[in-house]
Each structure stands twice: as structure tokens, then as C-alpha cells.
Amino acid sequence: MAQVEVTKELIARVAKNARLNLTDAELEKFVPQIKEIILDSFSKLDEVDAKEEPSFQPVAISNRMRKDEVKKSISQDEALKNASTKLRENGYFKGPKVL
Amino acid sequence: MVKREETIAFFVEQAKEDFSLVEKNLAGVITEIKNSNAKKLNYIEEFDAADVLRQVAELKKAKYKGKLFGVPVTVKDAICVKGVESKAGSKILRGYKPLFDANVIERARAEGAIILAKTTQDEFGFGTFATHTEKVPKNPFNNERSCGGSSGGAAGFTAFTKNFHVAIGESTGGSIACPASFCAGVGITPTYGLVSRYGLIDYANSLDKIGTIGKNVEDAALLLEVIAGYDARDSTSLDNGFKRDEAPIKRIALIKDFFEGCDSEVKKVVQDKIKELKKFYEVEEVSLPLNVKYALAAYYIIATCEASTNLAKLSGLRYGVQGNVEGKHFDDYFSEIRSKEFSDEAKRRIILGTFARMSGFRDAYYLKAMRVRTKLINEFNNAFKRYDLLLNPTMPTVAPKFSDIEKLTPLQNFAMDLCTVPANLAGLPHISVNAGFVNGLPVGIMAIAAHLQEKRLYSFAKVVEA
Lengths: 99, 466
What we know:
The complex is a heterodimer. Chain A is mainly alpha-helical. Chain A is built from 3 helices and 2 strands. Chain B has a domain at 4-247 and 394-465: Amidase signature (AS) domain (Amidase signature (AS) enzymes), CATH 3.90.1300.
């Protein structure tokens, strides 16, 4: 594929997609490092002619179905155990607003 | 030469008859944990004395005395232990106490193991030197040098302890073999899918493998056989229908492409060891031109893509670090927590992986890497038609100084994984065992077998060890 241009704008956009706020200092540091990895390493695969099927796993694994059965699970209280007291209310997790 | 009296199998035999040996050994290990922590060697992330004492009391009453009866087992931080903080070396999971044991922990406990402590590691396994974390483990052979990563604490403590102990580690691209090599331990990474990943805080699902590190081959192999086996809760777990018979080893080959990239002093140690091995096996050389050229690129694309999706769930809700959500939009809240708690290394990998999966780039990077992986696996499988095992130095250098690691760019850092990444990418079982020393620093030799041929690795490594 055509050579990708790794710019500050591109990295800032990718970071935003990944829910990361980068400071200017971080951008200054990361852009050349990421550019080196993409251009000198990732892009090496351009020269390989690979028509093979992709190996999403290294060992052939087939789908296995399990029975649709109700089994014992953790209680609601237990499920909430790791939530901070501020982020649980009336047996529910509390999160930031969505709308 | 490993004496039978030095193995945990021997200890277990004795301990079944005399429980005071369990208590004595445990007291010794606990003193060492306290010493190593006091000396800031940083092998241990989390140690809960009350939890350990409770386990001992239960063990004392146990009717079934298993294969690991009374053996203290340390666990890489990324593996969930019920009620014990498990944070994969990261800040974002601070305070997370799992409600359940990982499958490997259940299996180890069922055979009488004492789950002793969590060991330090690179954040989520992101690293070759266990430096990408707050508690950086120091090499027991030279404290100015790295233990290797990412299972650095596991290998460091295994070398440090004078007592009976064995460690559970995890490898994505070399995180068991590398620290085993730098700390003169024996590290076994099994076939992908042999050991259940249920309860592993994952890095990259198609690459992660839980394995073991011990002071000798027998210890590491015993623990692996205990933790291996089918588990319905891991959709990639290999079912028991796969055959794992022991097959004899006749012909082995040094992978010359990997060998050539190593430091001359490392080459010399490995070459001398191979000369000795010629008494036992036919030894030849083999070339894997595609793997040496493309494995690192394919690996880092796949690993960062999978990591970036796995880490998407860490957003400051339900577990781990949590902040104040009042008056904040969810995007801002998630971004705030993630930006504050992820290290630079995690941020770089998330960005790389997100980039390689983005529309417009996905086919060229992510999908292409998966196709190239098929080629690379085929290249290995062809070599296994001629050879029973393939060899290379585990790492291209001895354990580097922290001051030298700081000078590496991220790409140079990735390149250190040249010898360990190909087998990991192909899901092939491999073992690292000590081959000798350079100025007092350990050098590991690595053997790779075809899928499910772990037993060949054990018998080969015992020859190297002798």
C-alpha cells in the first residue's frame, strides 16, 4: 500500500478514538517513536505476498457450543464489591452521564 | 547437575509424611519475601500473610495430599487470585480484588499448592525488561541489571529463593523465556490453548499463554502438568482429544538466522553447549528466512491490535481506579482516567493497535499480519518435518543494565524479542534453560517443539541441565 504519513494530526486523532488525551509534550515524544515503528517495522509486511487464510489463532480451534443452562453465579452484592462507594447506588453501578 | 533432593517432587514426598517441613519451608520463603522487598529487589507485588496462614491451616487438615502438597507458588500479577489485589502491574487496576480464582490457581490449589504472592511484571506484559511498571524487579545476579520481562518478578524470585518454590508466569511474545534466561531459571511456555486463560488479565488473546518458571526442569514441568488441561470457560482451550505422547528426539537444528543476530559472547556459550549436545543428538542448522524477516512486525501488529481492544474495557468503572463522575460526560470521564493511569508504553501500544485496526489501514496491517502469520507457522511446520526440535539463544544479549535500557527507542526495544517472538506468534511450545554464563551473567538456550510436544522439551532440557 502507499506509504502512510504519520503526522501529529493522525496520532492525535487515533488517540482520541482510543479515549486518550495526549498532552503536547506526549505528542512530541510519541510521534517520532510511533513513526519509526510503523514505517520501519509494520510496513515491512507490504513486501510479503500473502494469499493464505488469516490465522486468527495459532492452533486450529473449532467452535464449541455449550448447553443453554442457568448456573449458579455471583450475587449482586458480590458483583458490586469492587465498585467504589461513590460509584454504586441501590444495588446498581453508577456511571457518568451518557446524554 | 540437579540432585533429586533439590526438586519439589522430592519435597512433596517428604512433606506428605512430615508437615513441619511445609511450615519450615514456608517460613523460609516468607523471610525471603520480606528481605527481597526490604532490599528493594521488587520481586513481590502483593503478599497477604493472613491469607497464606489460612491456606496452611486448611492444608494441614486436608485428606488428599496432592502433587504440589505444601509447595509455595508465586503468581504473575496478571493472573487473578481470589481476594488478592490483581492488577497486571498496572496503575489503572489498583485495588481490584477478583471474586474468583483463575483456572490455573484452582488447579494448583487442588493439588495442595500454597498460593503465596503476586509477582511483579511490566504493565499488562508490555515489555522485555519489566521496567514498564512502578515496582521494577532487579536481577539477582547483578542488581544494576534487569530480570527480563515481562514475568520479571517470577524469574527473579525463583533465582533468589533458597527454598522450595515454583512460579506461574505468562508469555505473549517471550515473557517467560526472556526472564528465565536472564535469571538462569527454567521457563516453559506451553502450546497455545493447553493451559486455560480463564482468569488471566489479557494482553493479546491469540498470543497469551500461561506457563511456568522453576529452578530446574522437573519443577517447571511438574507445575505445568498440574495447570494444563481443558476448561470450558476458555473458548480457545484445547480439549483433551489432543494427543501429547512423548516422542524420542533424534535430530535437532540451530536456527541460524536468529543465532546470527546475537552478541558474540552469547553465541559462544550457546555454541559450546551445542558441541556437548552432539553426543546425544544429530545437530544441524536450519534457516527460517520468513520468520527472521517478518515475525517481529506481524507480532507487534497483532499484539497491539488485540491489546488496544482488550484495554478498551478499562475506563474507571466497576473495578480498579475510579474517580468522580458527577457532571462529567462519559467520554471525558473515560479519557481522563485512562490518560492519567496508563503508562507511556501502554499509551503507545494502544495508539499503534488502534491505528492498525482503523478503517483504511485494517486490511494493510491487521489482516495482513494474520495472513503472514499463517506463512510463518507453515515455515515452522516444514522445519518440524525434518527436525524434532529447533534451537536458538533465548535472548541476543545477557541481562542489560537499566542505564542502557533507558537509551533504547521503543523499536529497538521490540527488536530484543527477535528470538522469542516467532515461536510465540506460532503458538509453539518452548523452553529456556541455562546454557552457561558470561562474566557471571546467565545465558539461556531455547528449544522449540511442534504443537503439543512439551514432553520433548522436558527431556531435551534435562540433558542441557545435566
